[in-house]
Amino acid sequence: MVNVSDICAMGGRPIAVVDALWSRGMAPGQQVLEGLAAASQRYGVPIVGGHSNNQAVGGQLAVAILGRAKTLLTSFNARPGDTLVMAIDLRGAYQEPNPYWDASTRAPAERLRADLELLPALAESGLCDAAKDISMAGAVGTALMLLECSQVGGVIDVQAIPRPPGVPLLRWLQSFPSYGYVFSVRPAQAAAVARYFESQGIACAAVGEVTATPQLHLRDGETSALLWDLAAQPFIGARAVVPREPAHV
Description:
By secondary structure, this protein is α+β, with helices and mostly antiparallel strands. The longest helix has 18 residues. It is about 30% helix and about 35% strand. Strands 7-10-4-11-8-12-13 form a seven-stranded mixed beta sheet. A three-stranded mixed beta sheet has the order 2-1-3.
């Protein structure tokens, strides 16, 4: 699921997967292989090869995935003035007691595939060119990664982030949804992007805006606070943030 989301977040369609599985004995390895096979069938992405070792001292799994894109969504195209939009599938439940919001295990395979197809179709529509899939960093942390890669900053209204009813805000900000994406969208296209996902039953909302100053501020009602200053401290260090020189006339 994670690897498929990575491809879709870049505007691509997944083609095939290879994996390397290390396990301590046959039984735990067999369980993982069965899970991989089930996911391959549900998402329609074949596992075409790999390697295994059931004599390892511990369990390890590495997966590589191949995809193809006609039009890219990247982490480097967010611009000052853009609207930050988040799309999250709330039709799920936590894998308690973990922070994993599972909207995939019980969903029909046809719906899973159709929901993932929204991403490359969105890229090809021209409505958006900057995106990132929400990962273990959570919704806000993933947005921060996107902003850092684009050498910009932003303001996020935490109450605007799509959230399941009854889930406390702090827990949700620390959660990893199985289907969740952050987009940086030109303001004129933000409503169209939201409708794009809402038409498929996926919650989608504008949650903030992109700024030129490389800082991320969080807003909650009338309260605002600085979460991260990228100029002072990189987050993932994917791209150095350097002060922009003033224009000389």
